[in-house]
């Protein structure tokens, strides 16, 4: 039962990393798109592609929080009371980002768009960075089981730095692939090239970081290192293969295939983290079973999850379907 | 006032003096972010329903004004939904960042309603997006129906979140062993004893606030001389919704107050500002509780509270003296709860009066009352409704103090124990003020743009497609 609920929780983590991540990454390219004139068209494509879906994608974060605090309250309290600095900053980043995006959509003047857009784009980079440091802190066992861990060193350490940097780069990679696909679907060749080049750069960055990360993990988070190269190694390989395939096929493949490849690449590596960490929720000191809520609560969470699968998955499918068919447009 | 009870008030204050340093900023921040978020809640919960009425009128009767209203409202909603979604997310974080010991100890029970809320939030976010972005390309009726899940999800989401709040007031469905939750009965947690009246009360409040606030915008426009059909409709649809709901809301509120009398005697004593248990308890309007436990100022209606609580002058009402000293709320908090209750009820009756004024005018002349004073009052009615909503939340939240989970967890034991929360609170204040101002600014920009182009044939939703769609079957018809 506890393992099942741990899977339910991790499904949320993977989906948030993939779909929320792609939206964050779009903000990264928005931030680096240059001046108002040069960046107008890429920014329009970004607006167009994340506008209708980002709120639904954002709900995965709420999902993770509520499942974590209900099913594993002890772990939730421990994480929150230790990593309050990066989590507090991430929460404020989320506010700035969502509001900035919504404000920019309805602003007309360049000056207004510049301010709101900068708020959106900058917080789109900061927020995944802090989430990455949180993941690094949890993975390297720096959150004590009873919480109140070191408020600074818990997330200012090599594994957290790796997590933060990797989160930003992976989001950027995902978004660049998605936007390349979107530009192809809309038949805008120059924008397609613009995002394709960026996808290449981001993929290169992710590759270099991952290789460097191996060395960091070996020193700083040895168990994670061993497990990633042990039971989780198939997932790591799948990630590398699909990620590479997406790059090779970036020029030719159908947009849908590209998206799937990128999603699998990122989903696999995040799942790899989960597999590597199993059976612990925190480091090597809090097992999933020890952190779990009483069984009826776990049953309730699973039942709600089943209801969510029945209700939300078809709805999400409808949203993405309409979005891909170009049925959702604002102005 | 005896010296013994004087001493006990002093004791209560002495106990509070030993609070952790994080308590004050944590409470301030929670109160501030909740008060901010709750302004956006009515738009997420009830605005879509108002939009759907206009949308229905537009599609069904080919009413272009109604369609234009619905479409513009959905643009406003898009901004408010976004700000509401992210400010709601902050609340989720705060539950852990500010109150880790609440979540750590009771997450297994208290968390369940939030998991349920997750589904509704998901559905809401999905269909809001489809509805808002679907004006141009979706066909009119399918598009209209994509609004329905938003309305239903709004009801479900409100019920879930308020279920969690109800559980804090009247916790049930758990078995404690050694201070931690050993067993949970999820249905009893969700459908706790405060669930029905609290959630219904909040749901109706959302419709009232959204209705009066939106109507107020068009009332202000009419005062400036814009008395066209577009403005009349923009006023009538939301105002009617709010006016229809206000009377049942006062009834639900009355029932809720009696449930509080039965189930939450300490909160009821604070609402009535009652120091000593007794019968023939007066209903005090206004006034404060002074530090010595005496009621100052205020207008006392003899036996009023006893009559309202139990329909009889001899109804015995428990006073604050029945609350153990160490968990007795300070007189200052009692005054806040009492005055908030008065503000909530008073403003609700003002709104009821306004609704009656409107009903009278409609009954006699089938029109909005002619008096400019009516429009002036209507223009302000949204703010009054908002004040009522905020005051109601103060009653239920501050009225629960010093408890976070009544009888089980004191607020000072729930709070985070490390970190300088003032810094976090300052950052939050700066960002929220910026975003609050930004929202107002952005809505004004949209307003000005629409006023500058009052007659937009092109922008009417379903515009380009519809004649063609309509034409097709007509051509084929004999």
Summarize the structure.
Chain A is built from 13 helices and two strands; from the N terminus they run αααααααααααββαα. By secondary structure, chain A is mainly alpha-helical.
How would you describe the overall organization of this protein?
The complex is a heterodimer of chains A (331) and B (478). With 331 residues, chain A is mainly alpha-helical. Chain A has a single domain, classed as Formate dehydrogenase/DMSO reductase fold. Helix content of chain A is 79%, strand content 2%. Chain A has 13 helices and two strands, in the order H-H-H-H-H-H-H-H-H-H-H-E-E-H-H. In chain A, strand 1 and strand 2 form a beta hairpin. Chain A is globular and about 55 Å long. The termini of chain A are far apart. With 478 residues, chain B is mostly helical. Chain B has one domain. In chain B, the strands form four sheets. Chain B has a two-stranded antiparallel ribbon. In chain B, strands 3-6 form a two-stranded antiparallel sheet. A two-stranded antiparallel sheet of chain B has the order 4-5. In chain B, a hairpin with a 2-residue loop joins strand 1 and strand 2. Chain B is globular, with a radius of gyration of 25 Å. The chains are: A mainly alpha (331), B mainly alpha (478). The interface between A and B is large, with 71 and 73 residues.
Keywords:
heterodimer; A: 331 residues; mainly alpha; Formate dehydrogenase/DMSO reductase fold; B: 478 residues; two-stranded antiparallel sheet; two-stranded antiparallel ribbon; globular; disordered C terminus
Integer-rounded radius of gyration of chain B: 25 Å
Strand content of chain A: under 5%
Question: Helicity of chain B, in percent?
Answer: over 70%
Number of domains of chain A: 1
Q: What is the CATH T-level topology of chain A?
A: Formate dehydrogenase/DMSO reductase fold
Outline of chain A, from the CA principal axes? globular
Rg for CA atoms of chain A: 20 Å
Order of helices and strands of chain B: HHHHHHHEEHHHHEEEEHHHEEHHH
Number of helices of chain A: 13
Strand arrangement, major sheet of chain B? 1-2
Please work out how many helical segments of chain B DSSP would assign. 17
Number of strands of chain A: 2
Tally of discrete structural domains of chain B: 1
- Largest Cβ-defined interface: A-B, 71 and 73 residues
Question: Which structural class do you get from the secondary structure elements of chain A?
Answer: mainly alpha
